[in-house]
Amino acid sequence: MLRSRFSIKSLERYFLILAAGVVLPMSVLTGILLLQSRAAYVATSDAQRAFSIVRATVSAMEKVSAERGPMNAALGAPCPVAQPLLDSLQAARDRSDASIARLLALYRAPLSPNSAKEFTNVQRIRYALIQARAQADALIAAPRDTVSGYSVLMAVNGMVALVPELQAAMADSVGVVMQNEADAPSLLALALLASELREQAGLFGSTFTPALAKHRQLTEADEYRMERVLGRIDQLHALLEARIATRPDLRASLAYMDMQRLYFGEGMRYLEEIRDAAALQPGGAEITTGELARTYVPLMASITQFRDQMLDSIERSMQQHRGEAIRLLAITLVAATMLAAALMLSLGQFRRRVIRPFVQATRIIGAIANGAATSSIPVGQYRGEVDGMFKALRVLEDNASARQRLERERDRLIVDLAVMAETDFLTGLLNRRAFEGRLEQALDSWSGSDAVLAFILFDIDDFKGINDTYGHASGDQALKVVADLCRQTWRQTDVVARVGGEEFAVLCHTGTADQAVQAAERMRTRIAAARVPAENGTTFALTASFGVAYASWGNAGAADSLFRHADELLYRAKMAGKNRVVPGESD
Questions:
Q1: Could you give the CA distance from residue 153 to residue 344 in angstroms, rounded to a whole number?
Q2: pTM score, whole prediction
């Protein structure tokens, strides 16, 4: 009897000790899971709200940008402006006002009680929009002979300046989406690039307004503004191409192909035709601002369609992740409740159903936290709350894998930036710093498998005269032509760089010194045969002078001496009449 009572008391004490020993760490684990699940849920909620702001801001940017189309048409129309055109302008303004009102509603309490600063900023932008419209309305109502091209330009610039301010206003929301949504970095970056491209495309069309409104030729200032905008459009196109190259599914989408065909194809050709006419004809292009807008604006719609496709994809992904976060939170709560009930049933059930999987789960969590490979998560081997726990761990493992993928993408971007730091922005060749590094490496690692190391230095003859005669843009085009010829002429194993303004250098291994001279002569001949299109529609020829220095294996010397020797030979070529190759003496 005493033994029985003692056993019962010991068993109860043992059970309580075991229960306490299990409940305490299990409570900690459950709390961690609950906190992580709640954090995931809160993160998805924050991301959704931030995305709503980003999308509303992008829409407002588009509407304000689109408002410039009918405004430009009205500025270029005869006075008084026809009522249908004024009605079109008012309709565009109504759409802009509605989009800004929707954006303000997202910042207004109780939806966003801590966004008073952002709300005030958008209100300020709206007031600036009203002032810009008033400035444009004054010019629209004024007799055309009293309106200068400069005043038209200032009215257009007043509207243009509002879009970057809206873009800056959503920076914090973009950061929240990027931080909390796994799919956002790639898709949102594409959407924002497309949004910026839409603005620059509209800005490019607006640069024609002063000239078309005054029926005059394009000025140098007009051409300069157009080149700046075109440069930004080319840069955005390149960024889109670079990012879309990693997503074959997006490259094959109809929206992307429409953007390539309609805007970068038909739209850019159309504006180039208008530009040529406005630059060559004394009275400017025989087209009104309204006609330009009616033809060009619909072609820009393909950019908006591509942007909206990216935004829709992000929104669907966020909704899916939000549902997963809610399910994870519910599963965690159910698992904790069922675990407490299991502890009350019996010691055996407690050990078999709780202790053993808990130890296993602890190891898995540790592996996930340390970034190590995890053993197979036994989803389906247990029932009820324990299986729910392992499902939650599977989600945690998937989230950790997603973070690792993002880190790998970041590392790839760092490598891309390093490549850009070694590349000449105009020609796409190596820059001087990168070339000097390659030269040092070549001298240090030269094994003697190639008998001769050739250093070829050449530059374009009378390049300053080309700039003075045809313009700096034509000079830049000449540099690009020479760079293309370099890529066609030299081998992939050769190191080619632009080392100065119009100076290029080549480093190559050859069997003999004559082979290096022959290669330089082929390059000189191709340059002399090339024709470069000038800004004024004509073409001009180029010549180049070459200095070829080389060294035999084991007698190469330092990089600076080889560079200096090639420079001296180039100088001799210049003094000897240019357009020639002057080789050095072989070692």
A1: 80
A2: 0.51
